[in-house]
């Protein structure tokens, strides 16, 4: 059976006039086409990623030597802007808003999301909120750290109010997107697509959307209270005004730990798709993986207290939070073991998508395992606020989310653009990125274990070699990402035309044309089997030859 012909039931879904969503004569700025909005989100997010990456390069340049290049305030401002941009403008919306918007209706066999105009509104709210953070940069920045911890954030003269306003507005975009996705998954599935036939990426997006709806209002209220305290002077978090700064930490992490899974759960969903399609095997433990996504979303609300082990909470409270934190590792381990079991005796294709998939497994596993010492009361006392935390955070957040985003871009790039990228160039830059990423952050584990505190721009000479290794690794990693961008952009003009189903996928997005027509499908596709029921097929040469 040719991979160019989908086997999900339904007819060919080609436009009668040869147009697709990219060439349709409609405006981009006010489009309600979920595919165009996904591309617009992706372009905007990558632009902010470039800005956040430049701040990261500035941090690593400063830390090349033990002698300061920037003042303490300048350094605080740089790492705060790096963190705020990366978390609020990049990592949170990275996969849900871009890849999720593009792929979710296609996978469901729907012609769009449930509320197309609300989807457009979400994008413009995101854009409007980001303008406040851009203005914050132009106005001199903020120096509070991306967490906005009180009482310093309530007392500093930097542009905290502007940044708080931007973050507050961004929350509405996240809530509306989550609401839209939940309704779309419930109400717009193709005929025959039961809950046990939904692709695992959509299960991950469903769990993510639940967190977005339930957790985001908490941080919105918290930021509003801090805004109110800073502008009106009523004591809420500032002890000088009779407030409680620990209350802010509880509110902040009640949201911010679940939001880790807003970033990571979509990454898990991407890996579930790419593992099975490139192993040519039905996913191992479909039900367990789907259930674990919902379990992670639920348990993620109960572990915020491990961020406050050293903030004065009781030993009993700390022990309870420690136990629950270990518990959240169980559904994550279920996913990892299921992916490995899927690979076992699979007909693995060693293409770029699979390399990034395996790279994600390596990096996220390190990130997850290094979280266990931080969840343990005895070891966290030593490791808290050291570079060990920085390395762990980046292995989970940047390594996990970024590698999954790049995986998703390569996996769905032919569907998005209608073009194939160069496999030779992609594999070269993958190895550069993978090696340099580990070279950047493994030294930070060593520094943290030896007591190097984070957020310091001066340090003892004994840490110099480790900082230099980390800095040079980061510079190479930045260059690697430029390489990835270069061959993907090159493919837009010079890449070979992609077939409708270059990877031999069995989910519904591979049934429509490449690139998809404006309304995705002509007629209503039907789902007659599961998304991972791979037959004996002839693999398209595009899958491995480029």
Structural description of this entry:
Helix 3 (94-108) crosses helix 8. This protein has helices spanning 34-62, 72-91, 94-108, 116-138, 152-155, 160-187, 200-232, 245-279, 286-299, 315-343, 352-369, 371-375, 377-383, 387-417, 423-449, 464-494, 542-545. It has a single domain (34-545), classed as Cytochrome c oxidase-like, subunit I domain (Cytochrome C Oxidase, Chain A). It contains 17 helices and no strands. The radius of gyration is 23 Å and the shape is globular. With 546 residues, the chain is mainly alpha-helical.
Name its key features.
Cytochrome C Oxidase, Chain A, disordered C terminus, 546 residues, globular, 65% helix, 17 helices
Give a topology summary.
Blueprint: H1 34-62, H2 72-91, H3 94-108, H4 116-138, H5 152-155, H6 160-187, H7 200-232, H8 245-279, H9 286-299, H10 315-343, H11 352-369, H12 371-375, H13 377-383, H14 387-417, H15 423-449, H16 464-494, H17 542-545
Entry summary:
With 546 residues, this protein is mostly helical.
CATH homologous superfamily classification: Cytochrome c oxidase-like, subunit I domain
Helix/strand order, N-terminal first: HHHHHHHHHHHHHHHHH
Computed Rg: 23 Å
Largest sheet: none
CATH architecture: Up-down Bundle
Structural class: mainly alpha
The CATH class, by name, is Mainly Alpha
Extended strand count: 0
Label the overall shape. Answer: globular
Number of domains: 1
Query: What would the average pLDDT be, to the nearest integer?
Result: 92
According to CATH, the fold-level topology is Cytochrome C Oxidase, Chain A
Q: List segments where confidence is low: pLDDT < 50 over at least 5 consecutive residues.
A: 1-11, 537-546
Percentage of helical residues?
Answer: 55-70%
Measured distance between first and last alpha carbons: 22 Å
If helices are DSSP runs of H or I spanning 4 or more residues, what is the number of helices?
17
